[in-house]
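S.,

As promised, the FE2/S2 (inorganic) cluster run. Input:
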Amino acid sequence: MKSPSDRTSSRKSLPETDVCPELASLGFFKSQRLLALRHRGLLNPEEIDEYIALGGYAALPKALFDMTPEEIVDEVKTSGLRGRGGAGFPTGIKWELARNAESKSGSKYVVCNADEGDPGAFMDRSLLEADPHAVLEGMVIGARAMGASEGFVYVRDEYPHAVRMITRAIEQAEDYGLLGSDILGSDFDFRVSVVRGGGAFVCGEETALMASIEGREGRPRPRPPYPSQSGLWGCPTNINNVETWANIPCIVERGGEWYSGIGTKESKGTKIFSLVGKVVNTGLIEVPMGMTLREIVFDIGGGVPRGRKFKAVQSGGPSGGCIPESLIDLPVDYEELAKAGAIMGSGGLIVMDEDTCMVDLARYFVSFLEEESCGKCVPCREGIKRMREILTDIVEARGKEGDIERLEELAYAIKEASLCGLGKTAPNPVLTTIRYFRDEYESHVLHKRCPAKVCKAMIVYRVVPERCTGCQRCVQVCPVNAISGPRSQPHNVDLDKCIKCGACYEICKFDAIAGDAIYIE
Amino acid sequence: MPRLTRDGLDALRAELRESTRLGAPGRRVRLTVHLGTCGLASGAGKVLDAARAALEERAVDDVVVATSGCAGLCCREPMATVELAGEPPVKYADLDEKRIVEIIDEHVLGGRIVPAFVLGTGEERRA
Ligand SMILES: Cc1cc2nc3c(=O)[nH]c(=O)nc-3n(C[C@H](O)[C@H](O)[C@H](O)COP(=O)(O)O)c2cc1C
Ligand code: SF4
Ligand code: SF4
Ligand code: SF4
Ligand code: FES
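Predicted complex:
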């Protein structure tokens, strides 16, 4: 008997009976809890009427007419909501700081951070596309609480569909008087505009983002002053992530107490993750804080495809950390991830199987961050470059004794001395892979062997004569004619010609008559 | 549209709930194609076009064709949901232009679910 979760996992397969499973009983959906994604699949994002019919814009009049701004801030504080953009700062406390801050010109601003520079993450894009009014409603409530009269949604340019949805939503909300002056007849004025970001990863950092909105080059500056004291044009500014804003209407409507009943002691509510990589069910999930990685990867994700073995999860994007199989029962919240050396980040989860080389993985993320470093401070600019050089040497079989220790020293120095979060978190993938997979590093450095058989400089393709049937499949796929041999007799790989593309290995494994006659050493 | 007041918003909501209710005139079925960036990339736009064309061809006037954002399960996109008045919604996955037409003929017009393409029935769990 197949369990329902098997069915989500087998693509295009036909159920064997006419009985259809209930959606809520399928592995992928069963333990999700939709809060920020509460309208998933239900509404047309281009029609404000649908949002209203589903109960949207019900929190707003409550916040405008039944609550004082202080009460709104208190409700958010009670909820325990923490920023979903990365650092997890308590939202209510941040709002209170902005609310109490003096503005010389009288202006205050709120910003929605939809830069989402983490490659492979798409939580914020999806939310803006699917439920733009939820984000807007959250922003109006926040603006009211903090006394802001203008807001910005900063979206990356590569998200044209999201830009269209939020732009249209703003127009419709204005038409209904849910944005603009005298909102719902309350005397409260608030306008929102969309700013399209250039797409650099570092522009998601709040001070760089504000510089970009002001029309300056998007580079971070030292904090303090924090945006809540001196943000856009020197005025108090509150920046929150898309998902943070989308949670606000629920908190106002159902109460902070209710919200704080979901999640763990220090991390309340739910979190959206984009689940990608070597996992059967890829997609966007929302789960209560504290759910274990095992439940996420195996129950929701359906495990690793094609019978491969699970190896690790990268949490928090390129500057997040790698969590090994031994920690699979880790409850996912801000504290536990930090203890493991990783971060929640914005919610990217990349699942890796046994075919992933951890040193190569670290090299990949560090190269990304090297490109994205704005170059303003030396430890980040030079330190990340140096880490990438050492890692490249290691994967290209030029590693030297002491390289691992050198990486560790560099990592701590970069963390210590960098100006912004990019530099401060950039060493995470290196430190966590060394922490949990030190033997893999040692094998590369000391024995010039890549245990996952990924690093090309360290592997050799050979034919096992006893197995080879001489079917010549490999000869046909080799791009450089490195394989030869008479039909029906064992073949040979010319190691001087071979460029290690792996094509012969793949074809022999899956398609050859005898199969598996080519091996990697 | 005049700008709303608090009471106006409540009244509008009540009115919309009634007029968009399935079962209201011209609203026997709602066919939703999930159309986020991810769905679009896997061909949901074509599925939507095929659905619209098929309904027009068959001169159907009691089916609301709607779009919505991402349904969450990227690896099974394109997806669509069929909801007949008074029945639980049915979510279909791995769709293409042909399959959606089959679903329209069988389920939307004939009232018979097409099990081969069903992902699941009923609602997701909301907090
Ligand atoms: C390099 C870097 C990139 C960042 N990118 C994003 C981003 O794409 N989206 C986001 O919401 N926050 C990002 N942040 C965090 C923001 O600086 C800021 O903390 C956040 O937007 C605050 O919102 P929150 O309190 O709701 O999380 C980034 C931080 C750093 C250091
Ligand atoms: S830490 Fe890196 S990204 Fe941040 S300001 Fe310094 S150089 Fe720029
Ligand atoms: S594909 Fe495999 S079995 Fe066939 S000739 Fe090549 S090595 Fe031999
Ligand atoms: S690894 Fe690629 S280049 Fe080398 S023998 Fe096989 S097919 Fe040819
Ligand atoms: S982004 Fe893939 S289903 Fe939503």
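Strands of chain B lie at 29-34, 63-68, 80-84, 90-92, 118-121. The pocket of iron/sulfur cluster (ligand 3) is lined by residues A 463, 468-474, 491, 507-508, 512, 514, 517-518 (CB under 6 Å).

- D.
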